[in-house]
Amino acid sequence: MWESQRELSIRNKIADIFLTIPDKKMYGEVLQVILDALESEHGVFGYIDKNENYITPSMTRDIWDQCRMPEKDIVFPKDSWGGIWGKALTEKKTFYSNESFNVPEGHLPVKRALCVPILHKGELIGLITVGNKKTDYNENDRNLLDTIAANIAPVLKARLERDKMEEKRKNAEERIIEERNLAELYLDLLGHDINNINQAIISSSELLLMKANLPKGSTKYVKNLLQQARRISTMVSNVRKLSELKEKDFKMKKIDLYRIINNTIDRINQVYPERKIRIDHNISDKEVLIESNELVQDLVDNIIGNAVKYDRKNDVVVEIAHSLEQDGAFWKLEFKDHGPGVSDDMKSRIFKRLERGDESVYGSGLGLTIVNEVVERSGGMVWVEDRVKGDSSQGSNFVVKLLKAS
Questions:
Q1: How far apart are CA 63 and CA 66, in angstroms?
Q2: Residues contacting residue 380 through CB under 8 Å, at least 6 positions apart
Q3: For a surface tag, which of 20, 235, 318, 382 has the fewest beta carbons within 10 Å of its beta carbon?
Q4: Are residues 26 and 135 in the same domain?
């Protein structure tokens, strides 16, 4: 009965350590309980790693300090296993001896030793060694340490499996980061090269268009080449921008919508000087919370730019209305155009990558994806609605909700 109570007390102490003590300290704390139970001065408690090395994080401070071996370590490769502890590991059996041991020069003297392998379903996962007891080890000591090892085995196995999973997770994360970094580097290099090539094509095309003596009918081909080169440059720029948005930590600040929209109006008129573009808006003194001027500028540029591109008529009108949502948290902006509208099928896809409403219209297919990313990362929402009068489409209404700056 006394032995059962003693074993139960030891088991409970060890269980508490496994549950509450971090890995680095856990082995040493468990070893101390074992040394007290076996009335032993020194000992080692370690585990077998994935490479079949015997790792001993529990090496007691006094052993480490007193050991004068020149290359002492807590890692013991399988080909270095020797002595009674190596025999216990190799044969997966318990051994003890009460004789003095021949140890390497500088090693702490060992007079008596008891070594018990830790087995889990026949698999060697660790070893407990105690030594330098004042009296001889006996079968009772052996049985007690065998019992302790058997109780430790499933818990230690679980800890080791958890550590393996954590290592795999970290390795996977490192691989993902490395692959992403390589992909970003490749994208940067590729984008740089493409832009250089495109700039050469754009410059050459513009020079050709300036010449008055181009062969008859060739002008439209040069214009098409120029348009496609510009499209590629825009696409590379947008891919890089979208990648940066995915990684960016948004820090919200107040942005003046009035200034942003007026900037867009000026830019649109410069890009399409031959078209009569009118943008009616009543946005004044309206501030929203978003990461930067550049991002809200991208948002407005893409939505208004699409309205202009998809409206084939020379006289283009874009109306921008705003309202305050009932809960007072959002400004609701509506960008109403008079273009061809958006089909029901396209409504669910238009904010996804490389989706465009009309393939014949110049564009990268990423503009509205950037809009969606900016709005969602800023805590808002964006969607598109039809503008219908009778049975005919009157264009589209892009609705954006952005957090109102207090």
A1: 5
A2: 330, 400, 401, 402, 403
A3: 20
A4: yes
